[in-house]
Amino acid sequence: MHKTRDVEIDAEAFADAFAGRSVTVRHHLADHPLFTLDAIAELADRLPADSVRRERGDLPLANYGQYVDVGEGPPSATIRDVERNGIRVSLRDIHQAPEYAELINELLDEVEELVGGREGGMTQRAGYLFITAPASTTPMHFDVEHSFLLQIKGVKHVSVAAFQDDPSALRREFDRYVDGRECDFAAMQAVAETFTITPGLGVYLPSYVPHWVETEAGISISFSIPFHTRYVEQAEAVSRINKRMRKLHLSPRPAGESEPIDKTKAAVIRSWLKLQEARKRLPT
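and the corresponding structure tokens:
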């Protein structure tokens, strides 16, 4: 067992699961002063507006569409009333607040020792908080990054469809998701493993694996520490190119199948982004 100051991770289980499936972890953050409802509410008002998302808490689990903001007034008021208002609040990139950045880096410094050189090593780091009304849902989605989802308050059921025995099905569903097409949620449910996390428990979520969440009665607070690897960053660029190629009725190779092709696609995306930034700086 590899023990950080606040998180316990079975090093052997994590190494075996990395980038493929989920495993549970334990933590000692449930009583941390940064995760009281008042501390989180105060943080929400300090974050930039685009780091705060307020959505209905009763969204359908499958094939949900675009994000719709339902928040009114200061985010702190929504959070303090979350037991009654039926809203799910996501605070993104909380490492923008120095005290949260310090905790995130302490935790991920030691996670980085376990990741080592896998997928080119850890790169970008971040932190999220999820505050949800009783009996809420988080629709099925794919995350670019790896993450540890740590439960602070309440009960959360996290379902993960890793498709370990059928990687082609995982690629098919990912392409559908990226392209904005309807995924086969029934197929995901058929292979999903559900992890029930309570205060003191958490789950490792690998990148590019679909998952969805349901909570029970009472408020749920979860703390997520996501991180990228060099491979994940390249795969994200490849997926953007592949999406455009499929629109042209081409059949691009998926990320990870050809390193030279992946590098070329990533270089194209980097050049395109630089061009967009240069255009923004041009006088109108």
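(Above: one complete record from the training split.) The chain has two domains: 2-230, 234-281.
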